[in-house]
Amino acid sequence: MVEKRKDVPARYATAQEIQSQMEYTSKIRAIVTAGEVKKACVVTYGCQQNEADSERIAGMLRAMGYEKTDKEENADIIVVNTCAVRDHAEQRALSITGGYKHLKAKKPSLIIGISGCMVSKKESGDRIKRSYPYIDFTFGTEKLWQMPEILYGVISGQKRIFCPNEGKPITMEGIPVLRENPYKAWVSIMYGCNNFCTYCIVPYVRGRERSRRPEDILNEIRGLVADGCREITLLGQNVNSYGKEFGGECDFADLLAKICEIEGDYIVRFMTSHPKDASRKLIDTMAANPKIARQFHLPVQSGSDRILKAMNRNYTRESYLSLIRYMREKMPDIAISTDIIVGFPGETEEDFEETLSIVREARYDMMYSFIYSKRSGTPAAEMADQIPPAVTGARFPRLLEVQNEISLERNLVWENQTLRVLVDGRSKNNPEKFSGRTDGNKIVLFDADDSDIGKFVNIRITKAQTFALIGEIVNDGR
Ligand code: 5AD
Ligand code: SF4
Which residues, judged by CB distance below 6 Å to any ligand atom, belong to the binding site of ligand 1? Predict the structure, then answer.
């Protein structure tokens, strides 16, 4: 088992460190912009935090003079930002990256890098170095801010550079961001995780918890709102432990309240919350602020107290359910979603039935469920009684069946009601329709035109389905 890394207090990057990366950026820019236009493609796997990191990688590449492309075959540089939470995500990233070998054979000047959770640990970086000779560089999550320096080393020295995390987390302000969507923005409020749930690799690959200063976050959001952004999603592995290093001066609820003081027509979402830290104060703050979306993602992982203990989750089924009861009492229309792991080591049929029963009691609007994936280096990987795939495979659809029925019931409540929705654009699955999300983060499909994108509209719900609502625009949502 990998030792828990000692708590190294995170520190803010110094002005000198920021300046030095800006200098590398200018040097690369001089090279990149000297000839024909050069293009950069960033490919993202994994969670919203990774999407937010990719927007920073894309922002740095733009500052270096690269034009953005979504097609790997047109790119002069490809950065694959990876996930390590489950084995499947790692295997997919590796197999896609394997395909780039042919692109490099066709265009030897192509530069290929891998970033993120999969290459944060030294051993994983070493494996890439050995087995993937066409990969030019890697950098772990704690090294993202140093990408200009790493890339300059590759370009100027024609050498391969591998930079795993070293357990010296830095909080960096001022990294340029290239946002995918002008109306919706991810804003990271903290990085890392200190919880060490026994199944989870995140604390080992994203390092210790560190919060951004409230004034930096508020300034970023003020800028976004002034630029017309309509939806801000605050990100962190456990947003409820925000601000611990500020000595109780500004906790997550205080931060939310300060954000809501910023004038403008926008909504605020946040994820993810750990049930052991989600406070009554936070729920009261939400209830008092209509700008905070009526949505709460509260991963339960299991309904069995025995399994929750083995997972090191530090709450019980009863304390979790009482939190949900409090939320519904304060905000009857709140939509609650969860994450659940099926087949954690030692999970018996009785434990699994407790999970089915907590799903029935909590009545989630949405559930994200995962089959347990063994992550080497985590305590659960060493536990006896790993559950065979045939057993997890049989349990998983039973869980989906219970939740799907509840999702439909929870959606049917909205039929014939009018909801305010931010228009996202054409639906990916159904391009004839437009899609958007309700305050409760439910997908709504409706007819609209391109000029509606990025606007709030009021939609009357005509039909509820398990995974979406169907509706029609009544009027604009002012
Ligand atoms: N196996 C399966 N699911 C996992 N998750 C985290 N680690 C694992 C793992 N080893 C799930 C948890 C978490 C979500 C983001 O991913 O449910 O909340
Ligand atoms: Fe992983 Fe637990 Fe941290 Fe979430 S809170 S990132 S599940 S260790």
Answer: 85-86, 199-200, 299, 301, 339, 341, 370, 372-373, 375
User: Does a cis peptide bond (omega within 30 degrees of 0) precede residue 272?
Assistant: yes
End-to-end Cα distance, the chain: 55
Find the residues whose C-beta lies inside 6 A of ligand 2.
193, 195-197, 200, 202-203, 237-238, 274
Residue 103: per-residue pLDDT? 96
Residues 322 and 262 in one domain: yes
Atom 9 of ligand 1: nearest residue by CA position: 373
Question: Is 176 domain-assigned?
Answer: no
Average pLDDT of the residues in 401-423? 98
Residues 6+ apart with CB under 8 A from 287: 330, 331
| Dist. CA 101–CA 462, nearest whole Å | 50
Question: For residue 3, what pLDDT band results from cuts at 50, 70 and 90?
Answer: very low
Contact 237, 53 (CB under 8 A): no
Structural domain count, the chain:
3
pLDDT of res. 219: 96
Question: What's the rounded mean pLDDT across residues 100-125?
Answer: 93
Q: Are residues 252 and 144 in the same domain?
A: no
User: Which residue range(s) make up the domain with 254?
Assistant: 184-412
Residues 344 and 467 in one domain: no
> Could you say which ligand is closest to the alpha carbon of residue 240?
2
Pocket test for ligand 2, best of 47, 193, 340, 344 (most atoms within 8 A of CB): 193
Q: What is the largest CA-CA distance in the chain?
A: 66
Closest Cα to atom 17, ligand 1: which residue?
Answer: 339
